[in-house]
Every structure is written in C-alpha cells, then in structure tokens.
Hints:
Layout: E1 5-7, E2 13-15, H1 16-33, E3 38-39, H2 40-49, H3 56-68, E4 72-78, E5 84-90, H4 92-116
Antiparallel strand pairs: 1-2, 3-5, 4-5
Helix pairs in contact: 1-2
Amino acid sequence: xxxxxxxxxxxxxxxxxxxxxxxxxxxxxxxxxxxxxxxxxxxxxxxxxxxxxxxxxxxxxxxxxxxxxxxxxxxxxxxxxxxxxxxxxxxxxxxxxxxxxxxxxxxxxxxxxxxxxx
Length: 118
C-alpha cells in the first residue's frame, strides 16, 4: 500500500493507511486463525503476505486483548529443540465475531466502492 497521509483538524499529519489497518487487523487475525492453530510469527507472516505489516508492539497487546475477550484460545507447546511457543486458535465466540465482522466489512466495502466508483 502507498503511504497515504492527510492533515487532521489540529494540523498534524494522520496516516490514513495506518488508520485503515487498525480497523481491520482484529478481523484479519481471526480469519488467519480460522484456518487452524498458528503461533504468533505464523500469524504475522500470513498478514504480511497480504501486505499488512504489524509490529510485535501492535500484535501482542491485540492478541492478549482478544484472548481476554474470549475470541482466541492458546496452548503452550515445547518443540523438539526445547523452544516454547504459544499456539493460538479461534474460539467459538471468535468464529461468531469473525462472521459478523466479515458481513459488516462486505456491506461497508460495497458502500465505499459505490461512492468511489460513482
């Protein structure tokens, strides 16, 4: 994505791209987890494949909030080399939330496209 910026009412530059990402990252994480269990790096790599780059400083607070909200579960697994990883999965509540988010996204994006393409 291009680095798009706009000036807000205070005269400060607001990063439009960042604002858009913040609005959909939770939905995208739930979508990635909808395909099965993943550890954090796998989740962020899947997002990066689609051009959505998020830092650890964004990811970990968000995934922890999603866990506290009951949208994701995790389990701790030690691999054969002794490395401990948290594997995240979508919960039934997260699946319901994802379905609602996707439905809202479809309606919203259709509305935006109607206005942009008019």
